[in-house]
Amino acid sequence: MTTKAAFTEQEWDLVRGAPPAAGMLVITASHGGMMRETVEMAKVYAEARQQHGESEFLDELVASKPKSERVKAHSPEELKERTLQRLGEAVATVSAKATPAEVDDYRRFITTLTERVAKRHKEDDVEVSEAEQQAIDDVRAALGG
């Protein structure tokens, strides 16, 4: 089992910052619902904490306060590009230190988070907007899944 101790402080910050960054990418993909979508992100973390014991790695990840690092960018496109790059780096870091099952759990946690965030605010009677779906697809691609 992989734990936080397997990572440097910088690596752990990258790994724990990826899920909220992915969620924010989806939240900002289209207008409206930001408060509800942010609350939904917190619910995903809370539900993952309730499943304590299934994965020591995920237990430690969701036990710490989500850390979203501010990515500096000059445009929304650059922000998206840098966020997706950091997601790829986070998965690569986890892949280098964790078991394949833990890497899959990490990817699944991030994907679940983005899907739940997108579904939290319906727009024009559509459960997930085209922009949100594109953001989810981009996150999946960055995660290698």
Question: Can you describe this structure?
Answer:
With 145 residues, this protein is mainly α. It has one domain. The chain is 70% helix and 0% strand. The chain is built from six helices and no strands. Helix 1 packs across helix 2, helix 1 packs across helix 4 and helix 2 crosses helix 3. The longest helix is centred in the middle third of the chain and has 22 residues. The protein starts with 8 loop residues before the first helix and ends with a helix.
Helix content: 55-70%
Instruction: Give the number of helices.
Output: 6
The helix/strand order is HHHHHH
Give unreliable regions as ranges: none
Over all CA atoms, what is the radius of gyration? Answer: 15 Å
The dominant shape is globular
Largest sheet: none
Total number of distinct structural domains? 1
Average predicted confidence as pLDDT: 87
Report the structural category. Answer: mainly alpha
Strand content: under 5%
N- to C-terminal distance = 22 Å
Number of strands: 0
Region (Disordered): 121-145
Quick summary:
This protein is mostly helical and 145 residues long. It has helices spanning 9-27, 34-50, 56-63, 76-97, 100-120, 130-143. The longest helix has 22 residues, at 76-97.
Summary tags:
mainly alpha, 145 residues
Task: Summarize the helices and strands and which ones pair or pack.
Elements: H1 9-27, H2 34-50, H3 56-63, H4 76-97, H5 100-120, H6 130-143
